[in-house]
Write a structure and sequence with these properties.
alpha/beta, Rossmann fold, 3 domains, 5-stranded mixed beta sheet
């Protein structure tokens, strides 16, 4: 059994995540976006410094960071809404590093010309809809801006409204919509022209659990059909649920990046959780190296005089205790605790491994200080 560390509550009722290796099986060959050395300053304030990452085609790439880290600024540069001071963005490269057929836009500097921009769907953090118009009329306007007309536009409007679960609400004015419905319609507008790359900036802020579940399921459906998604969020449970690769930004710099499993393995170790039937009883303290082949005398010792400096002292967590593995064999720690509890007559309610979470890695890398910068 596995126990998860932490959790914000923001990602409750998330769709069950398939194994990362299974998600990687749907990856299209090549690179959708390659960002190199992006830098941008507003006067004396550095917004981005040497931001570099690449996004594999057909995957969901998580762009993570605290408030003010540079996530939204990076997305705006990719959309061409903001010009960087320096750096380059290359688009839709095949596996051999050459542009895919029909791609003319790979130069340095801005995000690209009209050709590239027509292949991008952008879901901004702020909902950009006209309240007095119906959902259908909003999409008619956005679709016409994308060059869609007539029956093709009408058919696509029906498709995207069904996709976001609003097919039966098309004729209602947006002013009557809930926050979650507005967010979903915002996404529908970005999908009208069937872009192969979708940029999503905090798409679940302020939504109800049902809308959040629907949006995350939609992201999965998009990547499984070959669409590339750059998913910008500070909800770590959401990123774990949908992202294949992630980059963590802080103070305008990329401080960690890579496939999600590798990032978790590199920056966090598993722990072991112990919960006793009698909560008032002190938990065991483990000493020295522990392996699954150690005998009980050398694997673990319970001592009232043990100090934290000389032992793997447990840390309170909920109704039980967490043990840091600290390079030792996790199975050995579990077996050592089981033997010690049995030898001491301690009744065990739960004994299980705790896998590292993206949230624990994120906090370890960015700290726990409040970030109130917009």
């Amino acid at each position: 059994m596995h126990h998860n560390e932490g959790g914000t509550g923001a990602g409750q009722n998330l769709p069950e995540s398939p194994a990362v290796s299974e998600r990687h099986g749907n990856v299209t060959a090549g690179i959708a976006v390659a960002v190199e050395g992006l830098a941008l300053s507003y006067g004396q304030r550095v917004a981005l410094h040497d931001v570099t990452f690449s996004v594999r085609a057909g995957t969901c790439f998580g762009l993570l960071g605290p408030n003010g880290a540079g996530k939204s600024t990076t997305l705006k540069i990719l959309c061409g809404l903001v010009q960087p001071d320096k750096g380059s963005v290359r688009w839709f490269e095949a596996a051999d590093g050459h542009p895919q057929p029909g791609e003319a836009d790979r130069g340095p500097g801005v995000a690209g010309s009209g050709l590239t921009h027509r292949r991008i769907g952008y879901v901004p953090q702020e909902v950009t809809l006209y309240d007095r118009l119906t959902a259908r009329d909003n999409l008619l306007m956005f679709g016409s801006l994308c060059g869609l007309r007539g029956r093709a536009l009408e058919a696509r409007i029906r498709e995207v409204l069904e996709l976001v679960g609003l097919g039966d609400r098309a004729q209602e004015p947006v002013v009557s919509y809930s926050g979650g419905m507005r967010r979903r319609l915002n996404i529908a507008a970005a999908l009208l022209h069937q872009p192969p790359l979708v940029l999503m900036d905090e798409p679940t802020v302020g939504v109800d659990p049902q809308s959040r579940h629907h949006i995350l399921s939609l992201v999965r459906r998009m990547t499984s059909s070959g669409v590339t998604v750059i998913y910008c969020t500070h909800y770590m449970e959401e990123a774990e649920a949908v992202c294949d690769d992630v980059a963590i930004l802080d103070h305008g710099r990329v401080i960690a990046a890579g496939p999600l499993p590798e990032l978790l393995a590199r920056h966090a170790e598993p722990k072991v959780y112990l919960e006793l039937e009698a909560p008032s009883v002190s938990p065991p303290v483990l000493f020295g190296p522990v392996s699954p082949h150690s005998d009980s005398s050398e694997a673990a010792t319970l001592s009232e005089t043990a100090t934290a400096a000389s032992a793997a002292a447990p840390v309170p967590s909920g109704a039980g205790w967490l043990y840091a593995v600290e390079g030792r064999d996790v199975l050995g720690v579990v077996e050592a605790l089981a033997r010690t509890c049995r030898a001491q007559g301690l009744a065990v309610r739960r004994l299980e491994t705790v896998r590292p979470t993206l949230e624990s890695v994120f906090l370890a890398l960015t700290g726990t200080s409040l970030r109130d910068e917009a």
